[in-house]
Predict the structure.
Amino acid sequence: MALSFEGGREIGLEQKDIALELKAALDAHVVEIKPHSEGNSEKIASIGDASFGTAGTEINRCDPFLGIDKISLEVGKSVVIIGPNGSGKTTIFDAVMDLRNADFGLKGSSGGTVYGKSVHGLESLRIARLNQEEILGQIGDMLARKVLEQAAEYFKQKFPVDWEDSEVYERNMINQEAEMRIDELGSRVVKLFGMEDFLDRKIHQLSGGERTKMVLVMMLAAEPDVLLLDEPTNHLDMESIAKLAGLFELYKKAGVSIASVSHVDWFLQSAGQDGVIECVADENSRSTRQSSSSYKNYVKDRSGDNYSIISGQIGWRGKKKWKAGKAIVQTTDVVTVPESPLIDIEFPSIQAGEVVFLSGSNGTGKTKLMEALVAGEGEKGKEFIKVKGVNIAYMPQFWPDAVVDGTLEGFFDWIKDEVDPHSQIMPVRFAKEARGLNFGGGRGRLFDRSWLKRPLSTFSGGEQRLLWFLSVSTLEGVDALCLDEPTNHMDRFLQKKVTEAIQSFPGTVIISSHDVKLMDELSTDVGNKIGSTIKPRNLVLNKEGGRTTVTEAGESPAEYAEKVRAQARNQAKRFKL
């Protein structure tokens, strides 16, 4: 599949409008900055021949300011940016792209900033970014295939070819090669990530992982000089994450500078072979430090470090209502989940106290399966039969829009209504528990009420997901947790809190996750469950010919994950252009 327009076809009025919205999204995520330097000459000299660099500067958009000792994104190098949630990692990316009122303000004449030359022969340095934010939200009714075709056309327009102008023959040759590379690279990445089966669906019909793949293809095909990846692993399956890391070698050989922010430790080890930029934060200051050591060596002797302000542990109020081995969700002989590839599948009953992993690639129906499990009503004809009296708390990958735009009190009320609308637990109880983990930062009932009015958006994505656990923990009678990517957006300190919370929860846990560390921890110790000797079950979803089957794997979730990653790494190594 060539990612280009079909010659001569007219685009209807509605598609023109959509195309303009796509262009606006791409304009915000692929920027061009003329090579230049400013500030102190000694600081500029210390940066060297980097694609981008800054030293002795600060970003004043955040409070407290983020002080930059030195950041250097070198040609053909891949580094990772690490640090606790809220320490300034995303802010650095905004400043590099000069977006959202973030810039590297110079301290008088003491600091310096450099934007280097393009490795693709452009007059400007081309910076492409995969953002945490949803960049496809305004084109939900557009076919995925059309999005990629028009994105390719957008990128190729940056490399015009005019054979009638003989004075720019060399430029024409370079640009023609770039256009061919955009089409070929996009087509091959689509195949590598197994995207062919969803390209004829609309964007709003895609899963979180499928949307991430869409944006990755566009950013990888953008001919970037600098590639900024802000949480590229969120919503992706393990196989795709391993393939993405494997592609970095190809881009590094082309001279592309890569910087990644992620909370997936094994991805950081692959992406951070050339260095680490760490953001350090407390209540009074923010700063950065850069090391040329690989991420693996950088964190090897720092297991005792803890920069998280969150303290304490989550305790559960629920009581053990079910005996080990008691089925809490049952199925008929075969079940079908609407609007999914889960057609006439065989699925085992879910029992009290079990830990069940749902493994499989993006698009196999894991999220749809979880939604169906949670919605089981016990009525004839339903896909799953939830035993009367069973309360399941479901953590989705995305909060509803009304919740995202609301307050902490609204967040808690939504969770309570979803889990147990008859619960008498009040939001102030949630606030008190949050203060116990140092979320509130203040004391007393009046402070709790004020804290509940804070917008949910003022907390990082990882903090929001930990607050979900805290909300559910205050409710009585929760029998099962159904968790869709529970550690997304979380630094390693918050991940540890979530692992401990899952282990201390006495009931059933159903998990879909690409977090190998979480798999390792729970494969070794499921924690305080009803059946203390239970090992986690691993149900693998495999999709072929548009239909998904479910089988129980003989190996543990951690063993299965390692096998999948090894196969994906080998595929990525064979990728050539």
